[in-house]
Amino acid sequence: MIVLDTSVISAFSQMGRFDLLQEIIRRLGLKAVIPQTVEEEIIFPEAISGLSKNGGWIDVKTINDYKEYLLSLHEGESGVIALAKKYGWIAALDDLDARKIARKEQIKITGTLGIIKIGYELCPIKDKKELQDIMDDLRKAGFFMIHDIQQDILDTEKPNKK
Prior knowledge:
- There is one protein chain.
- This protein has nine helices and five strands.
- It is of the alpha/beta class and 162 residues long.
- Helix 1 (6-14) packs across helix 2 and helix 2 (18-28) packs across helix 7.
- The longest helix is centred in the middle third of the chain and has 13 residues, at 75-87.
- It is globular.
- The mean pLDDT is 92.
């Protein structure tokens, strides 16, 4: 399972590539889940329609023991960390403070950029041009990227298929 934070859902939605997020997660053999704290933050219609209660592919789980993280994080991030910790799932977070806390809690993490990189490696992102277009769309959507990390993703090579 991969627990998605609002920032990941928002990034793919703002780029108009929400279906790409779904395809990458499917190719990873994972199921997507969000805590109810993220559900309450979602503002994108395609993300709402992705929720399992609407026949979609994202499950919503209730988590109550997230309040300990509220001192330094928002409710969505707190819920993602609490849910990932409770079940040993991967947390998909972009916020630096949330990622620091997740590491401290020994939670496996990724984020929007990590998911895009995996998408390129697994082939839903077919070539370097599409990868560059996605990175450009992400930047236009207001997503902050450190140049070195962006370049690392653009330098990614597809694994050799044998």
